[in-house]
Structures are given as structure tokens and as C-alpha cells.
């Protein structure tokens, strides 16, 4: 019922995540139908062990799956489908988050990727990635749907697919040069990635974006290899967003401006996101403080 509600609300990505959660529960408990009586504190511990040991999910993925399950249970209590005193999460603690190190490209690596000679679909994938970087770390689904009319007088105006947040920001010359490269191309979108009419149905649109992103990610890795970028197999389209965020935090103290560019709903989200890049800062501090110890 919970998944059906998400389908009715056109929340395709959320529905897919909860369908995956249901599949994992069915495998863990060896049952097509999951009864509330199975979701005891002990049952949650068994599910946590299953996620870690059988599915080999990392600590943060494990926590996310259990957080989604908690949301289902909370909704069931609200709907009266489960008595409040039967909520297993009252006597169960979610596993702790593990530190996250987000992959990002340094500015000189972005420049190297821009400069490498590419053709065809690999060039399109590279250009979309670089545009994302210059467009405030724009997400893949939004980049794929950018239309010429979204760019006027050097500004990009669009609504984020994920959050519904409106975005209005100036584009640097490098981003406008990329857009000009595709001026007059066939199709309604700036980048020839999605076919015309893709956005006529919300569910089909999300499926096409997901499918296209697989190919785009593969081509970005290949482009990074040609550009001589370190660990190219770890680079995906989303790394453009991480790279922008890291570049922005190093060049401004205005956290609010960075938050608005990323489309975060609050500063707390931005602070948590940017904190995942702090290892480089602490490494530099340690080197500044203790780097000359061997000279004593």
C-alpha cells in the first residue's frame, strides 16, 4: 500500500527505492508477504545482519534501508494499521553513519577533461558533465532536460526535478560556449541525450533518464582515462556536483550562496554535504603543523 501511494504521487524514484527494500525484506525473511509480527526489534537486527553480511551493503546503505523501513512503520502507525506499542523502532537503534568521502575532480582535472579531444557520444557526455560543473552542480536528470529557452541573457532558469526548487543563476562564459556548440541541433533539448517527447510522461521520463545515465557514466569514465585523470573508473556524472561544491567552498565563505546554487532546502543540509570534503583541509592542517618534524 505504501508503494502504491508513491506510484499515485508520481514519485518514481522513491517507489523504486521502496520496491527494492521490499525485495530485500522478502529475501531476508524468505516470505512474499511480510507480517508486522516479523518486524520485532530482533527481526530488525536480523535484517540489519542480512543487509551487511548477505547483501554486503555498506553501513550508510544499511542505515538508509532501515530508515526507509522506519518510515513505513511510522506511516502504518498513523494509518492505524499497526498499534503504537508494536512499533519495533522504539526499542531498536539505527546503525551509525560511516564517514563519507565524496569523489570530486580538482580544478586542473576539470580543465584537462575540457581540453581533451573527443568526438560523438563521448564528447556529448563530457560536455554535459562540464556544463553541470559550471551550472552549480546541476543533477544529471536536469542537465539532460535543459532546453534552449531555459537559458536567456546568460542566465539558467529551471526547476529541479528532485526537489521542485526553482533555480536562477548566471552561467560563466565556459558554460555558454558549451551551449553554443549545440545550437541548431535536432531535438528539443540542448544536449542530444534524450529523444524528443521524453518528458511527456513523468514515469517514462525517469526511466529514460536512468537508462541514459548508465551510458553517460560509462563514456565519462572513458573520457577521464583519455584526459589522464586519476582513478577514472570512480568518476560518474554526479562527481560534477561534488566537484562544484568542493570548488565553491574553497573560494567563498558565503555558505548561503553555495546552498542556493546546490538547491538545498536548508543550510544544515549544505553543511553536512560539505563536511564530507573536509579531509583535504585537515590533511593540509596536519602537514602545516607537523610536516617539518623530521627537521628537528
TrEMBL record:
This is Site-specific integrase. Residues 100-287 form the Tyr recombinase domain. It holds the Pfam family Phage_integrase. InterPro entries: CB, DNA_brk_join_enz, Integrase-like_cat_sf, Integrase_catalytic, Integrase_recombinase_N, SAM-like_dom, Tyrosine_recombinase_XerCD. Belongs to the 'phage' integrase family. GO terms for molecular function: DNA binding. The keyword Ribosomal protein does not apply. Keywords: DNA integration, DNA recombination, DNA-binding. It comes from Spiribacter salinus.
Amino acid at each position: 500500500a505504501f508503494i502504491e501511494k508513491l506510484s499515485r504521487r508520481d514519485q518514481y524514484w522513491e517507489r523504486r527505492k521502496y520496491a527494492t527494500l521490499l525485495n530485500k525484506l522478502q529475501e531476508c525473511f524468505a516470505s512474499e508477504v511480510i507480517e508486522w509480527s516479523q518486524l520485532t526489534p530482533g527481526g530488525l537486527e536480523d535484517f540489519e545482519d542480512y543487509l551487511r553480511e548477505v547483501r554486503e551493503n555498506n553501513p550508510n546503505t544499511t542505515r538508509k534501508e532501515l530508515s526507509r523501513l522506519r518510515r513505513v512503520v511510522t506511516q502504518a502507525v498513523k494509518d492505524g494499521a499497526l498499534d503504537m506499542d508494536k512499533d519495533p523502532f522504539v526499542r531498536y537503534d539505527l546503525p551509525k553513519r560511516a564517514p563519507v568521502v565524496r569523489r570530486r575532480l580538482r580544478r586542473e582535472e576539470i580543465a584537462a577533461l575540457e581540453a581533451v579531444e573527443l568526438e560523438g557520444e563521448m564528447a556529448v557526455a563530457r560536455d554535459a558533465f562540464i556544463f553541470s560543473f559550471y551550472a552549480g552542480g546541476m543533477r544529471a536528470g536536469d542537465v539532460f532536460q535543459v532546453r534552449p529557452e531555459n537559458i536567456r541573457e546568460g542566465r539558467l532558469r529551471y526547476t529541479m526535478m528532485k526537489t521542485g526548487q526553482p533555480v536562477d543563476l548566471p552561467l560563466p562564459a565556459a558554460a555558454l560556449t558549451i551551449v553554443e556548440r549545440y545550437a541548431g541541433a535536432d531535438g528539443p533539448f540542448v544536449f542530444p541525450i534524450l529523444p524528443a517527447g521524453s518528458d511527456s510522461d513523468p514515469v517514462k521520463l525517469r526511466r529514460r533518464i536512468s537508462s541514459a545515465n548508465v551510458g553517460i557514466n560509462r563514456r565519462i569514465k572513458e573520457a577521464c582515462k583519455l584526459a589522464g585523470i586519476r582513478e577514472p573508473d570512480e568518476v560518474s556524472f554526479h562527481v560534477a556536483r561534488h566537484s562544484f561544491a568542493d570548488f565553491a567552498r574553497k573560494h567563498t565563505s558565503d555558505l548561503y550562496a553555495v546552498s542556493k546554487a546546490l538547491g538545498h532546502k536548508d543550510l544544515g543540509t549544505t553543511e553536512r554535504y560539505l563536511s564530507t570534503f573536509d579531509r583535504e583541509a585537515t590533511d593540509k592542517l596536519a602537514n602545516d603543523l607537523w610536516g617539518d618534524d623530521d627537521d628537528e
